[in-house]
Amino acid sequence: MILDDISLQKYGYIExxxxxxxxxxxxxxxxxxxxxxxxxxxxxGDGYSVCDFCPGVLDQIKTPxxxxxxxxxxxxxxGIDEVRVTNGARESKFTVMHAMxxxxxxxxxxxxxxxxxxxxxxxxxxxxxxxQNSGNPDYKTEPQGYATAIEEVIKESGKPPAxxxxxxxxxNYGNLVDAKKxxxxxxxxxxxxxxxAAYSVGKMPINAKDLGxxxxxxxxxxxxxxSGPIGVLGAVEEYADIVFEKSPTHKVKEIxxxxxxxxxxxIMTMIxxxxxxxxxxxxxxxxxxxxxxxxxxxxxxxxxxxxxKPHDHDLMxxxxxxxxxxxxxxxxxxYFLYKELKERNIHGIKAGLTKFFKLxxxxxxxxxxxxxxxxxxxxIKKYE
Amino acid sequence: MILDDISLQKYGYIExxxxxxxxxxxxxxxxxxxxxxxxxxxxxGDGYSVCDFCPGVLDQIKTPxxxxxxxxxxxxxxGIDEVRVTNGARESKFTVMHAMxxxxxxxxxxxxxxxxxxxxxxxxxxxxxxxQNSGNPDYKTEPQGYATAIEEVIKESGKPPAxxxxxxxxxNYGNLVDAKKxxxxxxxxxxxxxxxAAYSVGKMPINAKDLGxxxxxxxxxxxxxxSGPIGVLGAVEEYADIVFEKSPTHKVKEIxxxxxxxxxxxIMTMIxxxxxxxxxxxxxxxxxxxxxxxxxxxxxxxxxxxxxKPHDHDLMxxxxxxxxxxxxxxxxxxYFLYKELKERNIHGIKAGLTKFFKLxxxxxxxxxxxxxxxxxxxxIKKYE
Lengths: 384, 384
Hints:
homodimer, alpha/beta, Aspartate Aminotransferase, domain 1, 7-stranded mixed sheet, 16 helices
């Protein structure tokens, strides 16, 4: 190909199709920007905008107030000693794994861990031991499973794993495990616990100290109304010096962060949304109420909500034999549901899925949730 | 601290001070957004916006046309077989180092390498051998220095380094080393060469194949008019399978990229600016002419341009004894230059610097460059 006017036509400014749809994709709900963040984008969009007054490293920038945000506001918000911003939750996890473990060491993951936890461990060249869950339909992880997994690692390798990770909640079923118990079990074996809170920090109150976590990881674009990619990484004092070790040759630069991470508009949108994000975590009970109401409505139509029930999170997984049956009979086959929803301006259930799918009710509000509920109802009746 | 209305006041929407200044900071020039990229920000700002139609991994997304961009346009633009987007040039470099080397292996860096090359090597736990340069005032790196460094590594460790890196240009003096010769020397020892082109890809024509580089790294926010953090990483076919190895458990996910990287507005601003960026690289000769003109003007006032002369890049380093002398005499001391420039709406020379500083003329244009030249002239005359 030659990069001429014709071949370049497909690039340039492109519109986002489902921008104004009711988007119930769990990936999208917590990352919708606040008005303040949208305004911040136009101010701070240029490449290295935040570096105008950089004293040498991102988290030390006083203008704009990144220093205060990283060293005062975020530690308070997450309930942990030291915080840095990263390029995302997965990068936060890799950073901890890479700093805390050496090639060939073991890590314990809950079986329902996000794929990026597995891939981060693979990148750090670690061995993975998983904590099993109860399987269908609850997929419940018992805290005691961490003791079993840790003991298996000790038996196989002669020492405890370098780290354990709990996904809080997991990204498939939205289950919340008793993190305090998991932390207490891990600490009995002197194993530090990383809480992957990519779907919770910024939506619900998360306090690492209260939960007993040694590391907490959040996602800006997933749950903190920030433009991605950006994440947060909190560490207790005991491990902060390891994870945030400074370069021997470039004294202010932290090795695992490669000096600076979210160096641009991403951090400024996170800061712009932060006051709203702090406040919305106080509204969490109402979000859970909405999720449960929505789940009941769908179950009333014959769908089955998988995972914790009653549910404690906006992310929910449904089994929908009724839609699967329709897909077997109609012309458009397994794409019928996506198309029917699209006609009703609802986006977020992957095209082609009918039997199993996940969605999120976070911040949708009762009015739009009613539209979604009515849409499901209409579609079922249409094909009866 | 408590996160209440008062303490949260300092966050939210914040204005960028020097937004409308003539900004000659080398970090900033190549990352100023195009109008198309600014519009893209408002469309794609939401967290995971590009993932509406994700088939499982970022570079495979067809809507928007990320697949075509990553697999057709960028390989053509960089002259290399396989390309991925990353979270920045430093992340690209770490990815290559981590994939190509193992703990304790050696890497060869030019002494003037960017600090992130050193820190990335430290993160990958490699030993570093540097290629010396000629020192003040040219800081010239001779390609033959790579042979010397490689042979030293062989002598010390019994095998060649896992990788060599050339900074093209370096971020201090803007020097361009004969990359072809460096590549040819490295290949004589079977050492792959990584070209760190963070200050060149997106500004000047860079073709990895023509230069003989095995890897090429660029920066979206530094030089491709993209909102950061975002970078590009190109690899020749021979090494692509190593660097972009897929997960054994999650078949479509690339381990070193942790699955997906620039998953949001960053990639969409890079795509939005891409047609303009391609075209502006064809204007490189005029940029070099502007840089040389500017350098001559400043040298005419008694400043000394350090590094290659005549210069071949917009990034230039100056020694300014005349400003240093003034700083010794005036009240505001070493901050006088920053303040004088600020009064003239010129930003980008770090506050406190007078004797040595770097700047960039990239895309400033003769009108604004004249304003900068006149400002220097006025300031010198004012304190005579």
